[in-house]
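notes to self, project folder thing:

trying the whole complex as one job this time. last attempt i did each chain seperately and stitching them together was a nightmare. two parts in total, labels are on each line so i dont mix them up again. if this works i'll redo the older ones the same way
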Amino acid sequence: MHPLSGFSLTRRLTLMFVGVGTAVLLGLGWVVSNSVEKHFEALDMEVLSGKMELIAQALQTVSAPSDLTQLSHQLARSLIGHHGLEVMLLDADQAVIFATANASFDPAVVAAQARQRPGQPALWQLADQTYRGLAQQIPTAALDATGHPASVVVAAAIHIGHHQTYMQAFLQTLWLFVAGAAVLMSLLGWWSVRRALQPLRAMREQAQVVTAQQLSHRVTVQNMPVELAELAQSLNDMLARLEEAFKRLSDFSSDIAHELRTPVSNLMTQTQVALSQPRAADDYRHVLESNAEELDRMARMIADMLLLAKADNGLVVPNRELVDLAAEVQALFDYFDAVADDKGVHLRQSGSASVQADRLMLRRALANLLSNAIRHATPGSVVQVWLTQHESAATLSVDNTGDTIAPELLERIFHRFFRVDPARQRSSEGTGLGLAITRSIVVAHGGQIAATSHDGLTTLTMRLP
Amino acid sequence: MKILIVEDEPKTGDYLRQGLSEAGFTVDLARNGHDGLHLALTEPFDLAILDVMLPGLDGWGVLSGIRHARKDLPVMFLTARDAVDDRVKGLELGADDYLVKPFAFSELLARVRTLLRRGSKAPAETSLHAADLELDLLRRRVSRASQRIDLTAKEFALLELLLRRQGEVLPRSLIASQVWDMNFDSDTNVIEVAMRRLRAKVDDAFEPKLIRTVRGMGYVLEAPPCTP
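result (full assembly):
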């Protein structure tokens, strides 16, 4: 689990805001204090190296040990007035040749510094004072016992107590400032995050209004920040899909109720009338026969509705095999031969194609298409099936000549219980589910189906991958 | 022929028993799974019809029990649930057929007869008869009262089916499946039209009429008993 997952968004954002802000301030403080420190060091070094230069020049004039004593006086004089500046001269044996009043640095440390890091700044501690010092070996004009130029270790140091006091005060102020800023940032952050999330709360309030009865309610997208507008739009799209599905579901239920009401009412009336007085055996038989027909139709309708319900829920899974569409169409022509002939309709097909599909389902889908085309064909006309094989799909179109279907009704012919001519409702043939089943089967195969109709020619085209 | 029905729904059970008895079978009805299995294992039945959802022991349980003792007993399942899983499960357990409620009784009867016929291999016939109608299977010719009748291939197949199952009411769905290999409930009047055309050729000009429509159930070909 994410460590922040239990926190509210406001809290998370505020924490992040404060964290980042504090880190930035601390970083800035570090950079500033570092550069101030560097600046002080540079100032000190300037003074120290100036002095070092002077001493080095003076040492050039020393050609005999006696000159050193004179030099010491000279140095003592020249250093008066330099508060906090200490100078120390050591000979080769680390004996102190000259030292200012407070310059009691450890000669060993000074000599080591001169040897190892000549001319580099070092911090020396003396009593409770801190000095920044510089040590260097400087040759003189005098020669030592071996005949080489004798050299002197020169150390110059400057008292940096006031710098340190300043830095301490600076750091203290910085800490206080950072702490204060953190508190201020958390307050400001919390406030601004709350303000920024205000549209989210508004959205929540709007979303709470949506119920099964009020699926048409939508979240306002205008005046929303861009990020939330997208979310709101997605939410609205989801609501639209839900509303659509919900509507289909309730339509489905009311369709069933409506479509079953008529036959059930027929059955009830017929049976009760038959039972209301004694009749001849033949009369009873007629009633039962008629009931049997009606019940058979209802049973078929229930089976079809179940198939559609399953298809709507994605439960219809085709068992695919290679199907030769031309052969299927031919088999169906055989099946519909008598009906078409009766009506004087000619069946023709051209082209060839094959697809990976569930043979039984596909046959059913095609049967519904053909039966529909034959039913609506003008006597004497031709019902033509066109097959086309494409690279990754096959199309099958069925043409029939008959009444033109109005464009606004074209999409609806694939809806359950839709009949172009309402007067044909409840004709003995058909449950009004044929094309809906065809579409479900096509969709279950990942295909599409569409209809066009003009100048008396109606074409239903299905495309199967 | 002795048939066992295991069905807990009282009305369905009673009507199945009545219908099958009237169709000439000896029928025993059990109202729950345990009784059904006991009967199936003690009496010599030729066929068992099992409902899937039964109190006590369900249809699958009864089927496995039967398959333990009698491998050859044909079993047909009835169910209100049309789930593919159910169908697969039934067939895996060794069911021979499967009917989804609501079903037409004529459909059930036709399938029962198919299952019962499966066991006894009828001798290969060369011709089929009913009254003065004759269908020559070898030369694929049909004649009635010695007059040659021309039939299309499908009409011939349809007549052959009716003749082979004389006296049985054949539901439309069974005819569509057997003659045209259309294994779904078609909502057209295809079978009606095909049957009308067949009758026009086979029956219209002759007496007695052999093919009869049984409204709400299907079609039957039957020679009246009085004719020779």
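what i see at first glance: Chain A touches chain B at residues 288-293, 295-296, 298-300, 302-304, 306, 317, 331, 334-339, 342, 360, 363-364, 367-368, 371, 375, 428-431, 433-434 (CB under 8 Å).
need to look closer tmrw
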